[in-house]
Please model this.
Amino acid sequence: MTRQLTLLIFLLPICFTSCGQTKPETKNKEQQQIVYTFDTSTIVILPFDTTRYWVFKDSKPTDLTNDDLQKIETILNDCINSYNPEQEKIYNEIKDKNPEYKLDKKNFIIDLTRYKRQYEAVINSKGEKEVWVNCFCRTHNSNWRNERVVVKDGGNCYFNLKINLTTGQYYELMVNGDA
Model:
């Protein structure tokens, strides 16, 4: 019993400090280790699927750096901060005109803390680095860490956009509609 307790006391702190920390990746070209510093419980970097030509045409896969991940976070926040005020206005208008409706504000505005994310990075035909950002608040038991989550409808629980890391611009924000 004492031996088991000692082992438990030793292993427990290791388990707590290692949850959701970093994800080591290796670049085969340079045999250099890249340690990503993002929350692996909510974000995954998927390889670009060239069969999904609708995401990026005439592009080739590339890697993301920690600097890229920080830029993505900043640009994504800018995008949502631009999107939410109009959505809040729509929410308030509907609520005021129809007080009998039991509206939930979270169905109108996006709170990024509710979402998991998938990133796919490419170099476009102009030589610029771009990333497709796919966000979702439900996974429907899919293997979201390895397979792209694509659904129809679902409201603002599902949205995606493209970010050009070279220019610092986002575009093609697409928030799913409700059925």
